[in-house]
Specification:
Length: 416
């Protein structure tokens, strides 16, 4: 017997939040005209706390090499493959991020150093929750910052795909009253045509009931979403420009986000994630666990940029991680939970080719609590700048409650 739970799993729908009003979504399934191109922000969450000091390497900082005698990335040496890739005479990219170097040089990739949450927790769970809710230190927040942005900036042509996560479940960032969709895979979202019309109608009735009972939306709206995705023909999508995404969930998720952007389904905020950044032992320098994760991260970002081509003018990608790592390596040739880290920012509006943010230094008197890279850019200021200047979002106070956005010091990563 086919149950609603089985159908929800088989259809590929991890979670859909359609809000309280049943008719809030614009009908787009049979629209005669394609939707206008929209600008979008793509958030890549690095779960596990990425070591920002070995990602965008401060090789010009004398204390850096002293603090990391076995895992420091060597200073650039004439383009040597076993050294940092020079960016500005002080900072360098980890060599595993070499696919991103051309984007840096052409000005479509930048970085923000010493960015993160002002909350000092070193708990992965709490730090991720605070960053995704957009309210550091406050555990009572019910919705996420991305969802509040959608609520505060209603769109006249809203679709079920205004906020999308290519993740198995709806992330904390997109939880809330505004419509948002989480998909494990576009190809599996919907009713398979081979099931036949009778089975399909039965599933549609079951699906509609499940959406009403469990997701508090309407079956009609859910099927509008399915029809929109059918028009994109996910199974036949071929990345443009010869782009090759790395195998795995992360690379596949970026490929599908690119597909949704090019299909003009109304996407404005997208979310994906890549885990495996918690390297307490054997982190490595030029080679090792961190290098492997950075290679996957960078290869997928470069493929995404190549795939979108001139559409990258409409898109900004930003990486986030819950906190950084200790400035000093530990006894296991790894790093422990720290404070500030680094964010990469890529896209058409980005003032690339530079490291943004105030560098606090790694001297013993400059480290946070004597052990961590100090915070100089609040992650909310970075996100607020992207929302305001790229998406032209308003009412940022509603998106980041409790944070005085008017007094914020934007890091200046966008041209807007």
């Amino acid at each position: 017997m086919v149950t609603r739970r089985f159908f929800l799993k088989a259809s590929g729908l991890a979670m859909v939040s359609f809000g309280a009003a049943p008719r809030v979504l614009e009908r787009v399934a049979h629209a005669a005209e394609p939707m206008r191109r929209r600008k979008a922000i793509v958030v890549v969450f690095q779960r596990g706390a990425c070591d920002g000091l070995n990602t965008v390497v401060p090789y010009g900082e004398p204390a850096y090499h002293a603090l990391r005698p076995t895992i420091a990335v060597p200073a650039p040496r004439g383009g040597a493959p076993d050294a940092a890739l020079d960016l500005d005479g002080f900072f360098g990219l980890h060599p595993a991020l070499r696919p991103l170097l051309p984007l840096w040089r052409e000005g479509s990739l930048g970085a923000v150093q010493a960015v993160g949450s002002p909350d000092a927790t070193r708990s992965h769970f709490d730090a991720q929750d605070f960053m995704e809710s957009g309210t550091p230190g406050r555990k009572s927040t019910e919705d996420g910052w991305m969802n509040r942005c959608l609520q505060a900036n209603p769109a006249p042509e809203a679709t079920p795909f205004r906020g999308v996560a290519l993740t198995p479940t709806l992330p904390r960032s997109l939880a809330g009253r505004a419509p948002a969709v989480a998909l494990a895979n576009l190809r599996d979202f919907g009713i398979r045509p081979s099931a036949g019309p009778v089975v399909a109608r039965t599933f549609e009735d079951m699906y509609a009931g499940a959406v009403r009972d469990v997701l508090h939306g309407t079956g009609e709206e859910a099927f509008e979403a399915i029809d929109v995705l059918r028009r994109t023909d996910p199974a036949r999508y071929t990345p443009a420009g010869g782009a090759e995404y790395p195998r795995g969930r992360y690379g596949d998720s970026l490929r599908q986000i690119a597909q949704l952007i090019k299909a003009d389904v109304g996407l404005e905020l997208a979310f994906t994630e890549i885990g495996g950044w918690d390297h307490h032992a054997a982190e490595g320098g030029v080679q090792g666990q961190l290098a492997q994760r950075l290679h996957e991260l960078g290869t997928a970002l470069a493929a995404f940029h190549q795939d979108l081509g001139d559409r990258m003018g409409d898109v900004v990608v930003v990486t986030m991680t819950e906190f950084g790592r200790t400035a000093r390596e530990n006894g296991n040739r790894g790093t422990d939970h720290g404070h500030a880290s680094v964010s990469l920012v890529m896209g058409g509006d980005v003032r690339g080719g530079r490291v943004h943010g105030r560098w606090p230094g790694l001297g013993s008197h400059q480290l946070y609590e004597g052990r961590d890279l100090a915070l100089t850019t609040d992650f909310r200021d970075l996100l607020a700048e992207l929302l305001a200047k790229h998406l032209e979002a308003r009412n940022l106070e509603a998106t980041f409650p409790g944070h005085d956005v008017r007094a914020s010091r934007f890091p200046g990563v966008t041209r807007g």
